[in-house]
């Protein structure tokens, strides 16, 4: 029986009232709903410690050296000169060489200069070495590319250097090393590196659970699918995918791989949010959304088991891998279990609740569409569920027949196989349809965030 027009109008009125309440409250669901996130306390780094816990030339840190830059090099024109008056440059060569660096290095250094003055009023950041044109460093040093700096404070009080190193991490340097008792070494990725592109994602081969308990790769997921997630009250729910915040079939990216003691392996970009806790407790409010780059061995994540339970599991290893395809589904709940591990839908800003609040209009628009076309969409979703359930009831048939996903891959018995027999026109048509970038609304929010939020809120 169809709803009358006044019933629909009443629903819309309730939605409007709820919208006003939402605008006043300004908070969203997720683990620990209603609990203000605890500020992180800065802990000084130890002598010889480095962060992240990879070698400097690892993809998860500053990446490979790309070649020495000289004043006659074409790449020299890409370096910028830092004239920040709040930074003291040693410049012992009297050539301004210590002022030359990449743009990313300059931005991080300028943020660090502000942090130093805030931490120690009257004290300034001091750069003892930046771009090296005289060959004073070992072959392959990032100093030759303007991607590394050695720093101290201008008062040269060495007891401050441990905290200075941690401030450098917070300022966004991709690798920080308490290298010497007399200076801190910092470096960054190359400006053009794909690893510094904005957006936070999972690889296309990562899997989520849809209706009927069926596993589905992110590359084959479409808006409207319902995936397993965690609600604001800590309940496991099937949450509808509203859109993709980032979807790019062709891009290669560096992913952090978090392996748990229970065998789960979550791969995601360093600037994506994952729920972490120092102790493996069942209380979901203990788990705070943090950048994946902060995850370390011994931290705990929430996993979804085959028995349908949510419980903590300890991370036993953190590694880096490269993979093609980047996907970031936005769910109504703002969370999603990817390969059995709970993660946020959001990235770049280390505040899950703020991000979920900011995407409220998207959820409202989706709810409005559901009110108008709910019957049709329910029928469509039921058809999808029926087909998925049929697959579940015939596991032999589904496992022996290769199922093609949107990325041009065949999934057969758990093995991914690249499809190579497409005609060139069809391949180009698939690429045109499947390849897209960051969603326009996400870009808009990022632009507003750059204006209204403190730079420390963003991922380095």
TrEMBL record:
Ca(2+) 1 binds at residues 92-93, 98, 128-129. SMART domains: HintC, HintN. One of its GO terms (biological process) is smoothened signaling pathway. Zn(2+) binds at residues 143, 150, 185. It catalyses: glycyl-L-cysteinyl-[protein] + cholesterol + H(+) = [protein]-C-terminal glycyl cholesterol ester + N-terminal L-cysteinyl-[protein]. Keywords: Autocatalytic cleavage, Calcium, Cell membrane, Developmental protein, Endoplasmic reticulum, Golgi apparatus, Hydrolase, Lipoprotein, Membrane, Metal-binding, Palmitate, Protease, Signal, Transferase, Zinc. GO terms for molecular function: calcium ion binding; patched binding; peptidase activity; transferase activity. Ca(2+) 2 binds at residues 93, 129, 132, 134. Residues 199-305, 307-351 form the Hint domain. It comes from the Eukaryota. The gene is dhh. Residues 1-26 form the signal peptide. This is Hedgehog protein. InterPro entries: Hedgehog, Hedgehog_Hint, Hedgehog_Signaling, Hedgehog_signalling_dom, Hint_dom_C, Hint_dom_N, Hint_dom_sf, Intein_N. It is found in: Endoplasmic reticulum membrane. Multimer. The keyword Zinc-finger does not apply. It holds the Pfam family Hint. Belongs to the hedgehog family. GO terms for cellular component: endoplasmic reticulum membrane; extracellular space; Golgi membrane; plasma membrane.
